[in-house]
Amino acid sequence: MERGADAAARALELVLASLEDSKAEDIVSIDIAGKSALGDYMVVVSGRSNRHVSAISEHLISDLKDEGMGSARVEGLETGDWVLIDTGDIIVHVFRPEIREFYNLERMWAAPEIEDRLH
């Protein structure tokens, strides 16, 4: 089990470095291990425009392939409103800001932690 957690943590570092390199905005990572069978981490970021969202996503997909993690499932790349990149351990959501605000995934997945800070 620990080996899987280590691999997920290393993959998260790679994902976050790639996103920062692409100038992704408002990067939030949420530990969902134990909360969901979907993966260990969810990362939610914004791009400034459809073009920026697509560029962030393509850069991340390229970086994942370069690190031997090229089997990620990708959805939404054509429109650039909301791109989902699923590496298995990490689910990355790249949004335009207004789409991100509408779906508000951080609040849904990190609700207990956020609720504690709001009250």
How would you summarize the topology of this molecule?
Elements: H1 2-21, E1 25-31, E2 41-46, H2 50-66, E3 73-75, E4 82-86, E5 90-95, H3 97-103, H4 105-109, H5 111-118
Helix pairs in contact: 1-2
What is the second-level CATH architecture? 2-Layer Sandwich
Report the principal-axis shape: globular
Q: Beta-sheet strand percentage? A: 15-25%
Could you give me the name of the CATH homologous superfamily? Beta Polymerase, domain 2
Q: Which value, in Å, is the CA radius of gyration? A: 14 Å
Order of H and E elements: HEEHEEEHHH
Q: Supply the number of structural domains.
A: 1
Structural class designation: alpha+beta
Q: Helix amount, in percent?
A: 40-55%
With strands numbered from the N-terminus, the spatial order across the biggest sheet is: 1-2-5-4-3
Helical segment count: 5
Pfam family, one: RsfS
Subunit structure: Interacts with ribosomal protein uL14 (rplN).
Subcellular location: Cytoplasm
Organism: Peteryoungia aggregata LMG 23059
